[in-house]
Amino acid sequence: MMAISLIQKYNVPGPRYTSYPTVPYWDEKKFSLEEWKKNLVLSFNESNKTEGISLYIHLPFCESLCTFCGCHKRITKRHEVENPYIEAVLKEWQLYCNLFDSKPVIKEIHLGGGTPTFFSPKNLEQLINGIISKAEIAEMHEFSFEGHPNNTTRAHLQSLYNLGFRRVSFGVQDYSETVQNAIHRIQPFHQVAKVTFWAKEIGYTSISHDLVYGLPFQKVEDIIDTIEKTKSLQPNRISFYSYAHVPWIKGNGQRGFNDEDVPRDNEKRELYEVGKMLLLKNGYYEIGMDHFATADDSMYVAFKNKRLHRNFMGYTASKTQVMIGLGVSSISDSWYSFAQNEKNLEDYYDKINSEEIPVTKGHLLTKEDLIIRKHILNIMCHFETNWDNGLYFEEIYDVLENLEEMIVDGLVDITNTCLKVTEKGKPFVRNICMAFDLRLKRNIPNKQVFSLTI
Ligand SMILES: C[S@@+](CC[C@H](N)C(=O)[O-])C[C@H]1O[C@@H](n2cnc3c(N)ncnc32)[C@H](O)[C@@H]1O
Ligand code: SF4
Questions:
Q1: For a tag on the chain, would you pick the N or C end, based on fewer CB atoms within 10 A?
Q2: Alpha carbon of 125 to ligand 2 centroid (Å)
Q3: Looking at residue 449, what is its pLDDT?
Q4: Both 420 and 301 in a single domain?
Q5: Do both 98 and 162 map to the same domain?
Q6: Domain count across the chain
Q7: For residue 431, what pLDDT is reported?
Q8: Distance 171 CA to ligand 2 centre (A)
Q9: Are residues 256 and 157 in the same domain?
Q10: Are 62 and 156 in a shared domain?
């Protein structure tokens, strides 16, 4: 077990580094929609023919609010919202296609949320058919979606399978009744077992379960029980997320429990360590910061071959230079720039109705950003980085000075031009990345904007 003092010392607010620069550090003044379009077309022309593009489609509706949730969602039981939303997303896709001289080659589609399975199978079919009617599909494509075990039907799984989806992740979180009551998400084991079984029977080749540690009232016994139950269903991947307690974010539903009900510091870390030990014992391999997979899963193979990538959705086994995010609040990445869509549904519709790409803010990466981004990706994905081979930057010696305490604490090893995260340092990978985060260092926030790193 980790020394308690190290956990207390390094448990500070810090980004999860799904991008660099992180969203609060985007330079919005230098960004414009015109620049975004130019950057995107440039990147599309460089990469569409050779590697294709990825699409992230945000489907924001959920029928009921889980009070721990940090995702961008709109709670409603009115299913009339489905059709106008699908029409808007297809219009947005058309606006993007109009920018390009050739047909997009789609390598990846990920349906995220919110709850994609809020939508009927028929409407999801209409959405995917509308998207692919304007594109070509790469031979080795990967289509995936997030399913809520409480409302995923066999028809959802079958329809999406018929459209080429082979990967599904189910939100599980924790099986304890006390925890489920606190987070307002009642989800019995048999429900998860049923959808997992259907997915296997239909032919999905990668089934993932999302678990979360650090939830209100969660105890070590709950983690042991949840992992026992999870193991019995044999998912190929397990995301074992650290609960991000960010109640200050507007519109967030994190209430229904008090701050003191949330495990923190060494109590929270113990939940992770016990979970990790059980997963390793049961044949899963740890990947990056919060993922586990079986040896035959593409994410483990990518990790072993140093091809693992990280983007706004977390870790992925494959990477494309261009990722277009469709739908309210989605973030797009052209590698040279980021852009985020309107976060408010009505504003999103307004822009789409005026035939405008619904981007509200973004960031154009500088040369320095591109170098730092690569270092942060290397550390988050491969636990090492190197600053020769074009990744040298002037402040590297200041960064090394900032890392001195972590070197003394045995969290990183530095040799010549190479940094390696030690086994002991892996839980602190976000802190190690923070030493490279020049934008954060130049402008330390005066209020809390990030969740705690542990
Ligand atoms: C969009 S949800 C998954 C799909 C569906 N809405 C559901 O809940 O089953 C994505 C996942 O994000 C994770 N998540 C949400 N809020 C979180 C938080 N505050 N901290 C850590 N993980 C969180 C959960 O594991 C959740 O399953
Ligand atoms: S966890 Fe999933 S179902 Fe619950 S509110 Fe968040 S997005 Fe919706």
A1: N
A2: 22
A3: 62
A4: no
A5: yes
A6: 2
A7: 93
A8: 8
A9: yes
A10: yes
* Residue 297, CA distances (Å) to 138, 160, 238, 302 in order: 20, 20, 11, 9
**Any domain includes 349:** no
CATH number, residue 234:
3.80.30.20
**What residue owns the CA closest to ligand 1's atom 15?**
69
Contact in structure between 223 and 213 (CB atoms under 8 Å):
yes
pLDDT of amino acid 1: 47
Rounded to the nearest angstrom, the gap between the alpha carbon of residue 180 and the centroid of all alpha carbons in its chain is 23
Alpha carbon distance 76, 63 (integer Å): 5
Residues 393-410: pLDDT tens digits? 989 999 999 899 999 999
pLDDT at 14: 84
Q: Residue 394 sits in which domain range?
A: 367-443
Name residues of the chain where pLDDT drops below 50.
1
Q: How far apart are CA 212 and CA 170, in angstroms?
A: 12
Cβ contact 283:276 at 8 Å: no
pTM score over 0.90: yes
**CA 12 remoteness from chain centre:** 21
Are 266 and 208 in the same domain? yes
Q: Is 172 helix (H, G, I), strand (E, B) or coil?
A: strand
* pLDDT reported for residue 157: 98
Pocket of ligand 2 (CB under 6 A): 62, 65-66, 69, 71, 73, 113-115, 148, 171
| Contacts of residue 97, Cβ cutoff 8 Å, sequence gap at least 6 | 103, 104, 134, 135
